[in-house]
Amino acid sequence: MDLNNIRTDISNIDEQMVNLIVRRMQLVLEVAKYKQENHLPVLDKSRERDILNRVTGIGEEGFEEYLKTLFSVLFDMSRSYQIRVLTPEGPLTDKIERAVRETPLMFPPKAVVACQGVEGAYSQMACDKMFSLPNIIYCRHFEGVFQAVESGLCQYGILPIENSSWGSVRAVYDLMKEYRFYIVRSAKLCLSHTLLTRERVKLSDIHEIVSHEQALAQCSEFLKQNPQIKISVCENTAVAAKMIAESPRNDIAAISSKNCAELYGLKILSDSIQNNANNYTRFICISKNLEIYPGSNKISLMLSLPHRPGALYSTIARFAALGLNLTKLESRPIPGRDFEFMFYFDMDASVYSKELLKLLSKFEQGTDPFVFLGCYTEI
């Protein structure tokens, strides 16, 4: 057979497969409706296992794994289709639709905003990027930002969530399990770290460098070149700069921003000392209330999954079936629950999709805990 004849045969088979798959999906939906009406569980793992054993047994030898993969995908597609058709709208759908109706058309230019650190902190820079006239209240620790928003002291809070070079800010992810909030906006900030000292101090005079642990990690190559210098961690890069300015010592330096040099009257001893020139940190803006502004196209979720093989794959397959792009997946252990994890998902998606709202309703009804963290725009 020549290539054209082979392709003609493949096209004919494809047409038959399309018709058969559509018919199979229709029959699967009828089964699901029957189970729903008779209060039977939709998912039947033993039935799926029997099908896999049967189709791999009747297939030609050497194609078992391909058949298993094909039918596993069919199962995922079938579940997704059942969810779209059978899942009723839940409280989350009502809450999201109400937020879409009631949220103002424009993000507020002015607000009382909680930031971790002191004046000159990167969180403050991110805040200024999101708000034109913010009234900033500074908190010593990340938890203070969550508490300020939860208590109503501040309408919004700014928190770093991940860095392009050093990954997630784990302390923030761990605190996300403890507080109720919504993400209403996010922003990426290019961070350029500098080594700041008092006037007339040389590098050879430095015995100690102070900064936040993330900044220290992002400047690890510079620090390796100076192994004789002691490294000390503090809660914020701007706090480190302020410490140097107020310290009587001339043998101490801070890794901080250029803004802090001017702000606290310090000298830039070394500029751009971070490992990567494209060093970005992503910040989130949190609120006590769900706000979904026009054009919001990112969604964040938090959920736990059962400790069994394929649990994460099945969840991801549901998103894939809707053509959604997962941009982040983070897992953190759940304290007191052996081998169980909380998963954090970021995806490019919009709550204007009815199919997605039905999927979220399904998670809301069947996954404990499940938290919708927000739908927002990243700037």
Structural class: alpha/beta
- Determine the oligomeric state from the structure: single chain
- On the 0 to 100 scale, the average pLDDT is 89
CATH superfamily of the domain at 90-103 and 295-379: ACT domain
CATH fold name of the domain at 90-103 and 295-379, please? Answer: Alpha-Beta Plaits
The CATH top-level class label of the domain at 90-103 and 295-379:
Alpha Beta
| Series of H and E elements | HHHHEHEHEEHEEEHHEHEHEEEHEEHE
Which percent band covers the strand fraction?
A: 25-35%
Euclidean distance between termini CA atoms: 56 Å
Shape: elongated
CATH architecture of the domain at 90-103 and 295-379: 2-Layer Sandwich
Largest sheet: 10 strands, mixed
Helix content: 40-55%
If helices are DSSP runs of H or I spanning 4 or more residues, what is the number of helices?
Answer: 13
Number of strands: 15
Low-confidence stretches: none
Rounded to an integer in angstroms, the radius of gyration calculated over CA atoms is: 27 Å
Could you walk me through the main structural features you see in this protein, from its secondary elements to its overall organization?
The chain has 379 residues and is α/β, with parallel strands linked by helices. The protein has helices spanning 3-37, 45-58, 64-86, 91-102, 122-130, 142-151, 170-176, 213-218, 220-224, 237-246, 258-263, 311-321, 354-366; strands spanning 110-116, 133-139, 156-163, 167-168, 182-190, 194-197, 208-211, 230-233, 252-256, 267-270, 280-287, 298-304, 325-333, 341-348, 370-378. The longest helix has 35 residues, at 3-37. The protein is elongated, with a radius of gyration of 27 Å. The mean pLDDT is 89.
